[in-house]
Structure formats: structure tokens, C-alpha cells
Specification:
- The structure is a single chain.
- The protein starts with a helix and ends with a strand.
- It is globular and about 60 Å long.
- It contains 2 helices and 19 strands.
- It is mainly beta and 381 residues long.
- The chain has one domain: Porin (Beta Barrel).
- A hairpin with a 7-residue loop joins strand 14 and strand 15.
- The strands form 2 sheets. The chain has a 16-stranded antiparallel barrel with strand order 1-3-4-5-6-7-8-9-10-13-14-15-16-17-18-19. A two-stranded antiparallel sheet has the order 11-12.
Amino acid sequence: MKRIINISITAAATIAGVWGTAAHAQSVALYGILDTGIEYVHNANRTNQSVVRMPGLTGEVPSRWGLKGSEPLGGGYNAIFTLESGLTVGTGTLGQGGRLFGRQALVGLDGPLGALTFGRQYSMLLWADVTADFIGANMYGTASLDNWLAVPRSDNTVVYRKSINGLSVGASYSFGRDASPPGGSNAPGEGTCAGSIPGDAAACREWSAMLQYDAKIWGVALAYDRQNGGPGASVNLFNGLAPVAMADNGNRDSRLLVDGYLKFGKFMFGAVWINRHVEVDSVATSRIISNQFVLEAEYKLSPALVIDSLAQRVVDSQQDTRATMEMTRATYLLSARTAVYAQIAFLQNSRNAAYAVSSAGGNPATGTSQVATMVGMRHSF
């Protein structure tokens, strides 16, 4: 009996040691960004009235908090996870239609052969665009003319990514891109499209692919993203016209992105082209093609002060809508984690267009120009 007790104690101590080692080896980080300010928009609605507000969507970057972890498994492999929640600083409410972890929720393996992850994840459009489009998901950025560019993520998604010697490849596949809660939507203007429908495997599917190369002072990237239609889905071109239904699985909304960047001393330049191709069952317009052209520049006046600017244009020939937009932003770093900023943007709509200058939304009159400005503060932890 004494021998059995000693063996049991030894076994228990060994198991506890293994568990203790595993718990000690796992790395979990809590992180986040809080960003908000005050915005003024001229000609903010159909009657050309102005508005002063604290925008809920973003400032320089969308507010968020999250947990990220990694556990070594041996042989160069790690188990990884990310849980990331979007929030509105002004009201304390959840983003992404009220989801707890609406920005990201994924688990997977990362190792010598690449990373394979499962869950709610980003399209390859984001990873291909993030360096060249360094103004990014700013209040006045590329997403002002195409809201999807700031939130290219999907539910029920498998993602593979691999980088080696500056070359990166990636692909994603979603079994149902938007299983939104009631009253919420994942993809702006696309409507809910939960997918995984018995007998209709193609409905609500989304897939994307990326090829990217980054050198020391320059880089280029190519990405493609395609969303299938399905029950409840629609297409919004964000030009003031009514969304078009894309309820059939043969309907398509695809984007081809090509971009590049160049660093030169204190300067950085970026160029982005997005070709959007929409195919729907519409007698009026069954095919819509838009092209968005973006140029960006950044100058670091000092380690603490950065000035950057953007000029972009979108052309939608089928719907006869066009817009040109310019913005300039100044960011001053109070510390490594805290910054204040001020920015101003101008948007000129063509006669039949009603694009909005602000990513926080708006409903300007058709053919109206807009001016918007914002001052704000962000803090990361």
C-alpha cells in the first residue's frame, strides 16, 4: 500500500509539473487601441446641413481590445489564438453589429510550413493593402469610397499564410461569410449571408488570395477577393444609389487589388488600385465595374511629428457616378503609446453621385461637395 501511495504521489507530481510547464510556456497578451475625437462635416445630409459629432466608427484607427496567445508545441510549431473586440469609445458599445469578438476570433497552428487558422478572420485584401495604404482605416481614407476596404473580414473562414525571404502568400475560404446577429451586419452594404445552406454549397461563399513581396525600402502586392450571393445579400457601391440584390449564388462581388510602396529617407509613398466587378440579376444593370485609384504620401518632420496626405478617385461608368477626394493629416506622438492628431478632407461628387467623405457615414445630396475635419486622440496598450 505504501508503495502504491508513493507511486501515486510521484505520478501526480509529474502531471502537475507538466501542466505547470505548459502553463508557464504559453504566452498570452492583452492589447488594445482607444481612438476618438470630434468631427465636423459640411453638407452632411440631403438638405446640405452640417453636423458636429463624436464619430463612433474610427478616428485614425478603429478602437479595439483583444487577447492574443501562443503555445510552443515542439518542432517549431505553435498553437495560436486571437480574440479581438471592436468598440465605440463615445458610447462604450460593441462594434461589428454587437458581436463580442467582432473583429477577429481564430485558433490555429503556426510553424515552418506556414500558419493555418480557423474562425472569423480577415480577407487577403487587408494583408496585401496594409503597408501601401498606410493611411489605412482612417476616418478619411480609402474606405470613404468603398467601406468594405476598412473591414474585409468574414465568418466561418479557413486561412493559410506563409512568408519567406520577403515573399508572402495567402489564401482564405469562407463557408458562410456573414452570420450576423439580428440588427447587425458584417460587410457594409452586403447584407447578411450566413451560408452553409443544405443543397446550395455555393451560396454566401467567399474566397481570397494574395501574393506579396517586401524589400527593405519598397514592396508590391496583388490580392483578389470574391463574394458569392445568397439569401439576404445585396451590393452597395456606396455612391448614394440604392443597393442591388444579389440573392442568387451565381451573383458575384469581386475586388482585384494591386498596390506598392516606396520609402525614401523621411518620405514614404504608396499607390493602390482597386478594380471592383459586380455581377447581379438586374434588368437595369447586370454588370457594374468601378475603379478606385489612390495615391498617398508621408513625411516625418521629426520623430514625434508625422504629416501624411491622400488623393483618390473612383469611377463607376455603368451607374455614371464619380468622386474625387483629398485629405491631409498631422499626427503628434506624445509618447510611444499616445498621440494627438488633426485632419481635414475634401470630396467632390459628380452630378449623379453621393459618396460620403466620412467613414462614419452620411447622406449628402447628389452632386454635392463635402468638407470634413476632425481632431482626436489615440492611446494604445
